[in-house]
Amino acid sequence: MAVIITVTNQKGGVGKTTTCSALCGCISEMNKKVLAVDLDPQGNLSFSLGADSEDCYTVYDVFKGSVDIYDTVQHTDTCDVIPANILLSGCELELSNVGREYILREQLKTIEGDYDYIIIDTPPALSILTINAYTASNWIIIPMIAEILSLQGIAQLKETIFAVKKYYNKSLEIKGILLNKYNPRLILTKEVEELAGIIAEQLDTKILEQKITNSVIIAEAPAHAKTIVEYAPRSKSTQQYHNLTYELLGIEKPRAPRNTSKSKTSSKRTAKR
């Protein structure tokens, strides 16, 4: 059975889609089967992973019950994707039936056996789409940036997460708060990190050890419809996302290979002497 991970924060611009894309890339590199589910009507995750979101069935059709979830799955170079487009924004008004909070969970049950991990991107709002994601998930990851408004977004999530845990998904676990665009040299960063630590305690979680520093490469990758792992495999940002993946999945970080060339050179010099 797949581990279902939702990346969420009702504040926009905190790196939710980038985090989803990077996790898909990193986990797929581990030879794991990954499904990305785009629940944001903007369809940014679909675009970032190179999926079509216009001339095809999307997650909107799944919520409407007009197609089987298998009919929406697209195969990309990185992973499988269930795309989204602007039609999804109408779900809040259109879904009025009893049990609407369970639609995604029930649909994913029919397909989760085919995957090791399912990564869900959510819209920057506490909507029925977000509640569906929480109800379907095992883990939640909350990305934020070192700004007060980003911190407010987490505080406002708290009541919704607790309500979902109480009524819909008792096993839901907040895996951690991820600090994006991290700059430890700024005073504001340290102040916000301290406040985030307090909120993390209230949520019975932690601030993840791996932080993601700001980089233009992270912004460039989606423009090429690639994950950061594919676009810049040797970059510092890619290494940070690999470390984040190891931390989340509880996998020991691989040791860097020893550079034996220097030792061989020094041994030759010693021999010559």
Instruction: Kindly provide the radius of gyration, computed on alpha-carbon positions and rounded to a whole number of angstroms.
Output: 20 Å
Could you say what the CATH architecture is? 3-Layer(aba) Sandwich
Total separate domains: 1
Order of helices and strands: EHEHHEEHHEHEHEHHHHH
The largest β sheet comes out as: 7 strands, mixed
Output the number of helix runs: 12
Shape: globular
| CATH third-tier fold name | Rossmann fold
Strand order of the largest sheet: 3-4-2-5-1-6-7
Low-pLDDT runs of 5+ residues are: none
**CATH superfamily placement:** P-loop containing nucleotide triphosphate hydrolases
Taken as a percent bin, the fraction of beta residues is: 5-15%
Q: What structural category arises from helix and sheet content? A: alpha/beta
Instruction: Give the end-to-end Cα distance, rounded to a whole number of Å.
Output: 62 Å
Please give the CATH class.
Answer: Alpha Beta
Helix content: 40-55%
